[in-house]
Amino acid sequence: MQAGHIFSIGQIIDREEDMVTRRQSLKRLVGVAAATIIAPMINRGWFQLFAENTTKYSARAVDLVQRSTVVDMLNPFTLLGVLAPLKGDKRPTWFTNPETFTAADFQRFKDSRIDVMHVGVGTVGPNAYDQVTSFISYWNGFIAHHTDKLMRVDDAQSIDAAKGAGKIGIILGLQNSEHFRTPDDVDHFYQLGQRISLLTYNSRNLIGNGSTERHDDGISDFGLSIIQRMNKMKMAVDVAHCGDRTTLEAFDISKAPVLITHANCRALNRDQPRCKTDEAIRKMAEKGGVMGITGVRNFVSAREPTTIENVLDHYDHVAKLVGVEHVGVGSDIDLDGYDALPEDYKKWLRGLYKSSYAFRDKMDTDGVNHYKRMFDITDGLIRRGYSDADIELILGGNFRRVLGQIWNTKV
Length: 411
Prior knowledge:
The protein is α/β, with parallel strands linked by helices. It has one domain (about 70-410): Alpha-Beta Barrel (TIM Barrel), CATH 3.20.20.140. The protein is built from 15 helices and 13 strands. The strands form 2 sheets. Strands 4, 5, 6, 7, 8, 9, 10, 11, 12 and 13 form a 10-stranded parallel beta sheet that branches. It has a 3-stranded antiparallel beta sheet with strand order 1-2-3. Helix 8 (about 220-235) links the parallel strand 8 (about 195-200) and strand 9 (about 235-240). Helix 1 runs parallel beside helix 2 (about 60-65) and helix 2 packs across helix 14 (about 375-385). The longest helix has 21 residues, at about 390-410. The model is unreliable at about 1-45 (pLDDT under 50).
């Protein structure tokens, strides 16, 4: 959704085959990183990973999450910090006061087991160039202040390096491309660290049309030149918020794989414009791309209850339609989600969007609305019968592969 991320601004284990012994499990947990997991409790092959919560995860899920390189292709890192400038909130944030990001804050990120986050925001309006410049500057400064904790991801090798160093990898991206006034601006922002750009947000820009526009005329001549320059610079093209025709034409124009970083399936939520059609998902896969599944409640389902099982239905739909090699995670929330925001922020945020977004009282989906959700998703995929190899692909292997193709291959 990244709704308000605007700078003008989501089996019991098969004990015969999958149970690991107490000693093996503890060795794995201790070996990953000191204090990453708190108070492990083993109970018939299930772990209680966090002392303040009674949720238990299977040993198989814990092992899979720990050994995978987990990539969340839309996670703003801090919703409050991103939204505050637009709302006029002058309280200090991690960006304006980097020293307020403490070791305890970092530990929560480590406990989430999300190794790499794409932190893209949406920009709207004529000042997009200046706003994006500020956004990237904030991030570059924040990362520079915390080089012991954070690493900017500029290439696929940096994904592996971040995990290996015990740091959180940060992919700088934008959920709109209005800051590209000319193709040369693609080069400029690439040099500043931007590696992904969503062609349009929800509305129309000079490139194409967003998902909530009344009409979609597809990619413009200017948009064609921007995609061509993005391909040349090895900047990933994203169509998560684009309208249907703009989405399809981007696949035709781009010479590199095109990403859907964070969306859901229209086949499972037919009146939601932010969901992607089966035609778009097929073309994404044909192009070699990957689609990240969000946990935003109104994108996941139009009916209640809306739970993790509904989210898993979207993973299943993409996997069955085009193959498990083309689906990943794009949460579209920070560690804690939209519902954890102050009430005035939530009310204000909903007001930024057209009624077609169909917000309800809750914005997050039950079961994936907290910082340990990668364990819940993994146990859910185990329940759905996915193999370990396939789960590792979904948790990050697929996006790691396609980003390597986009960023490292000459077009």
